[in-house]
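#lab-general

N.A. 3:47 PM
ok so I finally got the sequence cleaned up, no stray characters, all 270 residues accounted for. can someone with queue access submit it? mine expired

B.Y. 3:52 PM
send it over

N.A. 3:53 PM
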Amino acid sequence: MASFSAEVSVTQSAEFFARFGRFGGDKEMLRDLLGDDELMRWWLGKLTEYPGFQLIHSLFTPISAQLTRVRELNSERGWGFTDEDFAEIERSVPSWPAGKLVAVTLVPYLPDGNGMGGVERTFQELWQVAASLQHANWRWDGYDKAGPDKLRLLEGIEHPAKGRPVLRWEVIDLGCNRNRKPVDVRDPKTSPHAGILASAMLHPDWVKAMDGEKVPYVWAPGYEVNISDENPWQFLPILGFGRGDRGFELRCNWYDDCYSDWSIPSYARE
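B.Y. 4:20 PM
back already:
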């Protein structure tokens, strides 16, 4: 494995020292940092306290914090997961890929006991928590009581929670398939559904970073939405963020639409 110094380019080194001086650093500070191991450890320790350094790729919540948060939500919202469920999921943590917009997300799948397989309950619960973490939120009112005649999974996808709740790690590429139509790329084997909402719930800084350029808005391609008898099941949920009002939005769009500022996420690895 290459050493850290070998991985840092000359340009990066020059930029670091230029910024160090620009923001108040001087030769004496640099000399002390280079000559005192304890001071260097203290300085780096302070840097790691900066909130952005506590995230992965400055966007995503680390595994340990996700587990803590889902445990809290399980208790607060009565999802029904047991200590054994959490012990089991902790034994199967996937590695985090290097891609900047690829996230590892702990996805809770919930049953609802009325024969629908838990699709609507999971959708509603994850949205409610995700929306509560943002300054403002808005969603299409057709989701208020979706039901099986309004919301379902893409044909070929089965909701994993039948009689009891299920926890599942999902590795999702949240930046792929830009300038593509959902109808052309979605697939029951690769298209996430509840994992998109769980990502919004567990990675709120990712939502805040959505700008349609560096961090695209997203479709939820594993779902289908029915809003018209003329074109049944030809719409999908989409999640965006309004920079002006800092509002999290849950809308739906036609599956034949194509936008450069929207991605169609896909499982990187299940």
